[in-house]
Known about the structure:
CATH architecture of the largest domain: Alpha-Beta Horseshoe
Helix content: 25-40%
Largest sheet: 9 strands, mixed
CATH superfamily of the largest domain: tm_1862 like domain
Amino acid sequence: MGAALPDGEPAPADGALPDDIAVPADAPFSVYLHVPFCRVRCGYCDFNTYTATELRGARQDAYADTLLQEVELAAAVLADAGPLRPAGTVFFGGGTPTLLPAGDLGRMLAGVRGTFGLADDAEITVEANPDTVTDAVVAELAAAGVTRMSIGMQSAVPHVLAALDRTHDPDNVATAVSAARSAGLDVSVDLIYGAPGESLEDWRRSLETAVSLVPDHISAYALIIEEGTKLARQISRGEVPAPDDDLQADMYELADELLGAAGFDWYEVSNWARDDTHRSRHNLAYWQGADWWGFGPGAHSHIQGLRFWNVKHPAAYAQRLAAGQSPAAARERPDAASRRLEDVLLRSRIRDGLEIAAVAPDRRSAVAGLIADGLIDAAAAFAGRVVLTLRGRLLADAVVRALTE
């Protein structure tokens, strides 16, 4: 059901922002719409998701209307801090958003459009399980304004999918990509590497299959074992091996080699796009510290340095809104040092890089050592930016430590 929410100070019942927060009219704004439903729980997943037997008092068929209540509340809260801004990106994540009827997703998007407005070139993404994608579903989403579909492929190898508890038919990935293409949508496919029992050749097969689908964007994430998940328990009992760091590094290098040869450029440590126009602008908004409002149970938001997050369970979320209260559970306002650390952590991961001027003065001397170690690009550093090399991407945490500790 997802990791525990972070600690923080209690959020006010009406959701009001602190009086000193003023939102500039030209500050970018994004929207995240969380759909917390899944048919089955994958063994590695610690996202805030629920199967039908876990809902306990929450109704999946009423979810869209419930979330739209939060949209109305957010508009009232933000209007007190400045003019409402059109959303430059909207992202339906989960969970499995396409477990809801396409009409429900369309109504949620229409609510965002009618309340905040959408930028003329807004990027509207829906995450999808391949088994839930049909020509009719995609056509309805496209008609509602969706511009992009992110398809959870994870692997092309049946035993790897089984290790991850992924139940979709691998053949349906190509069907889903074709349906999205026919509707005029941009397509991203998501991959995971380092599953128990996955070999380098298994990973090569998945990469080559993904490339053969000719998507616009590919994400490739190393499997991370999250505490409390089924996979973590299996590893602790010795039933399956833990991920091998050296093998995962080899897998990353293979991904960069094959994707680069196929015309994809990395723009974030785990993301490759055919060109700049196919980067995920929504995810870039997170990495660049923009404002966003996350709607739905457990969703997190960020407005001008203030972070807040909603209650986790869909039933508690619905009850708060039905009572006319904000679903926000708590909030925090990181201090300047914490924000600098976060800025280094996030911006150093993207190809556009981190301005050296954003690094604390007493840590800028570390840049020379990072160049000498081959972790950051020398030419970019001389131009005033920290940009990771391939070796630096493999050791990104070490780069962050060098620039912050």
